Each structure stands twice: as C-alpha cells, then as structure tokens.
Amino acid sequence: MGKYNFDQVIERKGTACQKWDNLGKVFGDPDILALWKADMDFQAPPEVIERLQKRLDHGIFGYPNRPDDFYEVIISWMMRRHGWKIEKEWICHSPGVTPSLVFSMLALTRPGDKIMMQSPIYSPFYHIIQENGRRIVDNTLVLNDGRFTMDLDDLKDKLDPGVRMLFLCNPHNPSGRVWQEKELTELAEICLEKNIIIVSDEVHSDIVYRGNKHIPIASLSKDVENRTITSFSPSKTFNLAGFRSAIVVIPDEHLRERYNSLVSGMHLAGVTVFGSEAIAAAYGSGEEWLKELIEYLEENLHFTEEFLNSHMAGIKLIKPEGTYVPLIDFRKLGLSSEKLQNCLVHEASVGMNNGAEFGKVTEGFARLTIAAPRSTLTKGLIRISKAIEKGCLI
Predict the structure, then answer these.
(1) Quick one: residue 195, left, alpha or beta (phi over 0 = left, psi -120 to 50 = alpha)?
(2) What is the CATH number of the domain that holds 24?
(3) Of 285, 305, 321, which residue sits at a domain end?
(4) Helix (H) or strand (E) holding 148
(5) What residues does 231 pair with on adjacent strands?
(6) What CATH number is given to the structural domain containing 176?
(7) For position 156, what pLDDT does the model report?
(8) For residue 143, what is the enclosing H or E element?
(9) N or C terminus: fewer CB in 10 A for the chain?
(10) Count H helices, E strands: the chain?
(11) Residues of the chain where predicted confidence (pLDDT) is lower than 70
C-alpha cells in the first residue's frame, strides 16, 4: 500500500470539467462513462495542492513573476530524469504545449510551407497546420505485431524542399511508443541533412513504463539541439492541464529570438500566478507521487490486457511503452469507425476517443484512458464486454 490513494473515486461532474461535463456535447449522452481524453481522474499531488493553497491564502493575485525556484527545478528535473542539460536562458513560455507548436510554426515557416507529422497522431496536429495556412505531409507509422514503427524510407521520399518543419510526438500519442535512441538518431540525421526544424511535443515524457526510457531528441547532439524546439509540461504527468502553462526549450539563439518575438508580439508572454507555482511545485516535490502513479498505471495496463484476453477474444490492447491513453484494436468486430463508436456509446455507455480521429491507420480502434481508479476502469471494460456479447447491434 503506497502513500497515495489512486483508488479514490472523486465526482467530477458539475465542476466545469471537459472530460465529464462535455459528454452530452461530444457523444450525445451525458450519462455515459468517461474513458476518453488524456485527463486523469486523480487529484494532483498533495504537495502541489499544499503549495497552491498557500499561494491562494495570500489573497492577492496581481501581475506575477515566476517564483524563485522555477528555473532551478525545471533544469534539475530535466537533467535528473532525462539526462539533458538545459540552460536557463533557453527556457521560453507558452500557454500550453499545443500553442507552442502553433507559435513555432508561425515564427519559423510561411503560409504554404509543408509541415511533416507522423499519423496516427493527436488530432489537433492536423487542425493547427491546416488552420494556419500550412500543408500537411504525413509520414504514416507502420503497425506490425501490435507495435508502431517509423517508416523512414517513406519520410525521406516525402521530404521535398517545401517541407520546412517536422512535428515530432515523443512519447507518441496515441501509439504509446517511446522512441528509442536509434530511431531518433536516424530521424534527426535526415532532418539535419535536409535543414528541417524539429518541433518536439514531449508532454508525455514522464509517463514511461519499465524497460523504456524517454530520450529528448534535442539531447542527441549539439547539432540536433540547435535545430530543435522542445515543448513539455507537468500538465499530463500531474493532472495540471487546467493551468495552461508549458515550458518551451529553444537552445539556438536565432530560433529563440524569432519564437519569443512572435509570442511577445501577441502579448502572450506573461505567466499566470498559479501556472508557474504549479510547475515549480510539481517538478520540485512531485517525484514520489509520480513513482506511485506509474506503478498504478502499469497495474491498470496489466489489468486491461488480462481482461481483454479473458473476456473479449480478438480485441487487443496496443501495449504502450509510455502515456496513459493506449489504443484498443477492435477491428476483429468488422465494424466501421462510426458503427464502433455507436456500439461503445449507445450499447456500452462508454465514451472513448474514436481511432479514426488520429488517422486512417487507426480506423476500427478506440483510445482508452487508463488514468482512472481501477473500479472505474473495470466498470467500463465490463460494459464494453457485455455490448460485444450482445453483438453491437446498433
């Protein structure tokens, strides 16, 4: 029995919570079980809450600076956990990891330029490229024996002179891959040769399971470091997404100046009172909580895999190396993505992300959030099993 209780079920409906209060809007039924969205149903670490409460009790919330320990804890965390030595002046701001991708793209590419990404991918990647007048080049991942891999030959073939930037997702959402050094090195070498800027979304970097290690792509070499913008946050790790604060590391002075100039010009460079405090608190005192969280998530993964094997023959977990939003392969049912969603929502009363939203290769899949008390996860899996037994008639 650990120090922290991840089995506690906490009511979230009625708290202006997207995951639970948007079920009617997203799925058409407000009463289904929410097993979608990369949003944990666990309270943030008590050490973080205690620090935020102390700040709240002060009662004055004027324009803030970053707290004194802000940079120190970020630099220490990155070195201690991921072996990458970063400098204080490299650290830039963004109100979220996804906005940092937009800022990087706007600062360093022009309308009509091509941005490469690797589907299946977190769906906002599609939107932010297209909505800002850039063009998508998709280097689709390959699924072999339940594991996604990069197709670097395809990547090379598609890197024409119009491709200016690569959006990397590491660890990858939704495949669950934690890219290995060899894969990242080969990818980086291609990008260096073609003068491609790498923008790496590493928001899931701290949720990595035994036998795997997160490697920031920028840490591979000085050359790669100087062509990479890395964005991360404690938002996924410590369930702090509502603070809308991210860390953007840009070692190259020229790239950093262009990024900061754009953010400053939009008047978005200011930090929030609680966002900066939450980052400092999480990286400064959240490590013990994180250790127990990962152990609990690993147990949830094992439970999910065993349940599928025992009760839903042919329905497979794409076992993740990191993240807490693995894919479930429902293709054995022979249903279209639309019919699969209808089955999950209307027969099983469960909300999961439709695999088709991530790309064509994951049609017939659904993404499951395992960052929930085991009783909630169990309830959802039982509902899905019973719906499949009935034949998913809807």
Answers:
(1) left
(2) 3.90.1150.10
(3) 285
(4) strand 147-149
(5) 201, 248
(6) 3.40.640.10
(7) 96
(8) strand 142-144
(9) N
(10) 15, 15
(11) 1, 393-394
User: In this structure, what token pair is assigned to residue 372?
Assistant: 């929930």
What residue has token string 């608190």? Answer: 281
CA angle 127–131–135, rounded 5-degree value: 85
Q: Which structural domain, as residue segments, surrounds residue 354?
A: 18-45+288-389
Instruction: Quote the strand ranges of 203-297, DSSP E.
Output: 228-232, 246-249
pLDDT, residue 393, reads: 56
Q: Are residues 293 and 281 in the same domain?
A: no
The neighbour count for residue 268, using CB atoms within 10 Å, is 13
In the sheet that 246-249 helps form, which strands lie side by side, from edge to edge?
91-94, 246-249, 228-232, 197-201, 163-169, 114-117, 135-138
Residues in the chain: 394
d(CA 286, CA 207): 13
Could you tell me the pTM of the whole model? 0.96
- C-alpha to C-alpha distance for 392 and 348, rounded to whole angstroms: 9
**3-class SS string, 214-235:** CCCHHHHCHHHHCCEEEEECCH
Does 72 share its domain with 211?
yes
Instruction: Give CA separation, 170 vs 47, 108, 205, in Å.
Output: 27, 21, 7
Tell whether the torsion through CA atoms of 78, 82, 85 and 87 is positive or negative: negative
When divided into structural domains, the chain yields a total of: 2
